[in-house]
Amino acid sequence: MNTNHIWETYHQDVKQFLLSRIKNEEIANDVLQDTFIKIHTKFDSLQDHKKLKSWVFTIARNTMLDFFRTNKISTEFKEHDTQIEEEPSNHNEKDCLYGIIKRLPKKYRDPLFLADIKGKKQAEVAEQLKLALPTAKSRIQRARKLVAQGYMECCDYKMNQKGHLIGEVKTKEDCKICN
Which residues contact 13 (CB under 8 A, 6 or more apart)? Predict the structure, then answer.
């Protein structure tokens, strides 16, 4: 196994993962490139080749978080961020996301925040919230489904055959949750 084989096997999935969090294709491509440079230089540190996929995604997640830290981009969801008033022309997916997350029940919001915003592993989320691991995993998955449902309710997004949300963000006045 070599870096080229890892690239062929995982680069599309890693890129989708990065795009789902970064939302800028150029930056996602830069982070993807940095990820595979790290994979290439650290491949001999991989002890269990059966865990290759999780190792690759761990490097991708850490590279993305390093990018956010280096560029002083906050990855935290802060309560006051939901209070930002923007002009309708500046309205975007992030605005809807804040409104959707803010409306989630606390039992789903906290695990989602820790896992997807803070980047903690699900086992760490379970430990921090004093939950059984299956319970934490279930709540994170349920929260993700509720966020997707929120986009469908807020901006009339649709779910395609692959299970991805498709649609356009409406103006702030037309959103049912953000307004």
Answer: none
In degrees, to the nearest 5, what angle opens at C-alpha 104 toward C-alphas 98 and 106? 115
Under 8 Å between Cβ of 109 and 129: no
Task: Give the pTM.
Answer: 0.48
Residue with tokens 């990820």: 35
What are 77's two structure tokens?
Answer: 């969801």
CA angle 61, 62, 64 (to 5 degrees): 65
C-beta pairs of 58-63 under 8 Å, 24+ apart in sequence: 59/35, 60/14, 60/17, 60/18, 60/31, 60/32, 60/35, 61/17, 61/119, 63/31, 63/34, 63/35, 63/38
For 110, the 3-state DSSP assignment is helix
Q: What pLDDT does residue 84 have? A: 30
What six digits make up the tokens of 99?
């409104």
Residue indicated by tokens 């649609």: 167
Report the distance separating Cα 138 and Cα 95, nearest Å: 26
Q: How far apart are CA 52 and CA 14, in angstroms?
A: 13
Strands 158-159 and 165-166: antiparallel
Q: What is the pLDDT at residue 90? A: 55
Q: What tokens does 8 get? A: 């062929």
